[in-house]
Amino acid sequence: MSEHDKARRAFLFSAAAGSAAVAGAGLVPAAVAQTHEVHKEAAPPTSAHHSNAARHGAFLKDSDADTVAAFAERLMPGDVGLPGARDAGVLNYIDLALSGAYSDLQDFYRRGLAQLDTYCRATYNASFARLGSKQQDSVIAALEDGKATGFTWPTAQAFFNTLRVHTMEGMFADPIYGGNRDFAGWRLIGFPGAQPQFTQAEMATKEAYSSSPIIGLQAQAPMRRG
Question: Range of 181's domain?
Answer without folding.
Answer: 3-224
